[in-house]
Design a protein that fits this description.
The structure is a single chain. 72% of the residues lie in helices and 0% in strands. With 181 residues, it is mainly α.
Length: 181
């Protein structure tokens, strides 16, 4: 019998594969390609390999993948959330390397300080009417409270999400540079 975290990891990575396959925008075939990529990633073994390399997807990545597959990406500009994701991931990496004082990853195991920091973020999201981002944040908190993740950071961020956010920032910077030239 497969455990709930293992099943979540496999199915989550399969959905992320489907969403990544549908990124180029294949028009009316986008949904079919995403569904086929999701199934093929489970059958061929891409999802288990992604699970082994990146670990289970965060609720944030899974929520964004589901929004993409549904054709309803969160509104309100992507630069600020991408900066927040990449900045948080960078801070976690710097703290893990010992270049920042303290252990940021340990905050996820004793989440009250992190929850206190997320409260203003949730209030700002509610104030600005960013329902999709607020639902993704709430789902991450529920997944952590339900025991799906041991660390709150794992519910909010994962290496693949941070890499995709960094790639999106790099791409946006390159397009800005081309427009100025």
């Amino acid at each position: 019998m497969i455990s709930l975290p293992a099943a979540y990891g496999l199915l989550g990575q399969a959905l992320v594969c489907g969403a990544l396959a549908a990124l180029p925008g294949f028009g009316i075939f986008r949904v079919r390609i995403a569904l086929a990529a999701t199934a093929v990633s489970l059958l061929v073994g891409i999802a288990p390999i992604m699970l082994a390399v990146f670990g289970p997807p965060s609720i944030t990545l899974l929520g964004l993948a589901l929004c993409h597959l549904a054709g309803r990406l969160p509104a309100g500009g992507a630069t600020k959330p991408v900066l927040l994701i990449a900045g948080s991931g960078g801070a976690l990496a710097l703290a893990a390397a010992g270049w920042l004082p303290g252990d940021l990853c340990a905050l996820g195991y004793q989440p009250w300080p992190l929850l206190a920091a997320l409260l203003p973020l949730g209030l700002v999201l509610a104030w600005q009417g960013r329902t999709a981002w607020l639902l993704i944040l709430a789902a991450a908190l529920f997944a952590y409270a339900g025991g799906l993740f041991d660390n709150l950071w794992g519910a909010l961020l994962d290496p693949l999400l941070i890499m995709l956010a960094g790639g999106a920032l790099l791409r946006a910077g390159l397009f800005r540079r081309r427009r100025k030239s």
